[in-house]
Request: fold
Amino acid sequence: MLLTTVYYATKLRTIAPQASRDYKLSMRVHIRHTSYAIQSPSMQQKSNLPLFQAHPILVQKLPYQPLGTLPTPVQKLEALSTHLGHHHLYIKRDDLSGPLYGGNKVRKLEFIFGEALAKGFKEVVTLGAIGSHHVLATSIYARELGLTPYAHHFPQPISQHVLNNLLALSSTHPSLTLVGHPVELPFHQFKKQLMGWLQARQKTYYIKGGGSSLAGIFGYVNAALELQQQIEEGLLPCPDEIYVAAGTNGTLAGLILGAKMAKLSSKIIGVRVVDRVVTNSANVLALANAASATLNNYGVPAPLITLKDFDLLHNHFGKAYGQPTHEGDEASALLMGHESLKLDPTYTAKTFSAVVKRARQIDDAKTILYWHTLNGIDLSERIQNADYTRDLPEEYHTFFEDRA
Ligand SMILES: Cc1ncc(COP(=O)(O)O)c(C=O)c1O
Reply:
């Protein structure tokens, strides 16, 4: 609770003026529901959600725990548009999706934690690379809700961004298991170990990697309906193309399904940033159609998703997961230089490089929306106060020492 207050105080001093009113509002709401952490959300909180507004029957069917600061703003990238000579370039600011941590994980966690709490779980476990945004977001918000976070980690290329995520993670004191170090395990073996661990812990709620469990996808179905409302309010024209990073695919799958339910004419384009074995069209279709089938079971007419409903770009991935690309570095420099917005090399720089390339080619009359999925909340206080020798298991120390 104290931590929450300190973060808000810092946040309120540093946020952009146009967002400040929203944050002050959300602060009140947030502090209220962290004080009564495990209480059910009010009807009012639920009915603010575009998904529940469009399909009220889902209020009874989909457990939901508000965490975020929604709707997230949409903005025109004026300065960058001028620079690129493409004048209809917009951004959806999911970097501001939550008060303690933003990015795409918050929307997923609202439905995931909703389900975990509704089923009475007190512990959650998830998995990811050591710099995983998902593990970090899960751990931060689990603590806020009084849930104990566990994570199974695997190594990835070390960068300052990865180390900062680990330091921020250590501030939430999760129970961590490093699997596959020092010799990397094949992923199926990693998964087998995790499942063995889980079998012995019936009381722990399992969250799929990246938060791309069925419940998590509804966060992005809702996000597409939120965008539809913003289009109707005149905040942006209906985009011709929407670009989003695709890793474990839940964000992309939810957006595709939600956009089709909202009858948006936009083409949804995922940019692959993880290996093909995880990020591929078959997996995207499976997730989107599992969510669609669930909605149909709940009495909400939801369409079948086919390959015609989206594109998945493979040519921005570069050599490996987590390895920066030249185009990604250029895209990062452009967004920072013209709009003062930060990208990370693993997910968003690669995705934005696809946007930059397209903006240079496409007819100027077409509208492009970049869906920004990286956390934009300042973590520097958490990072500065962290001490890896004190707060992380010994086998993690080598990541910091090797780099030093
Ligand atoms: C910043 C960021 N963007 C995008 C993604 C990809 O989202 P998804 O796993 O839902 O495909 C991730 C996944 O971890 C992420 O951390």
About this structure: The first strand starts at residue 74 and ends at 76.
